[in-house]
Amino acid sequence: MQSLFKTRLTVGIAAMVAPCSAFAATAEALLPRNLSPWGMFVSADIVVKAVMIGLAIASLVTWTVWLAKTIELNRKSALARRRMRTLESNIAIADASGQTGGANDAVARLIQSTAIEAELSGGIHDDGLPERVALRLERVEAAMSRQIARGTGVLATIGATAPFVGLFGTVWGIMNSFIGISESHTTSLAVVAPGIAEALLATALGLVAAIPAVVIYNQLVRGIANYRALLGDASAQLLLLVSRQRDVRDFRLARAAE
How high is the pLDDT of residue 123? Predict the structure, then answer.
């Protein structure tokens, strides 16, 4: 009798443990082995993969624009400062134009525009010459400002849209998780984990693309503003040279008349 009771107890325990063991084995089989970022990308849905690839490309574009524009700003700002030192030495417009002949940087174009206007005026330094020179300089400044700011708009676009693109990937991944729950009729972690992992990875990539884009855009905007200030200083110095040279010419003519 005692041995029969032990036998039945053993069979009951085995019957209770067997489903749990089978469920655990099934869950272990369904649970993804690799939850690294690359593993989640490989196992992700095609739509989530497209979102991740797009965000990775956007991040690459952000850093490429940062490197290119930083080098360009540093180079052009250094050249503009050297040109400014030349203008501050009270050089004649004709001499400054001769030194910058063939150059295509911003300050060189400002100098050449001033020399062209002086030449078109026939060497007559009347009261309207500074105004005409100022109009030319303003147009050159605007063109150079547009040129130096080229490429920064994409950073603003990435910074504004990347979080929403990542959010789309998040929503899609969570939707896949609910679809898996519905199809498997279970709330097991093995069913929910892949979609949630994909969703979180898409969110992270959206932030990785957006945050540097916003920071770099603000940094470049400050650098471009400083460069524009240099151009404004160069234009002001050229107008001073035009006015100063006219005054010197009038003074010399007055002394010759005496």
Answer: 60
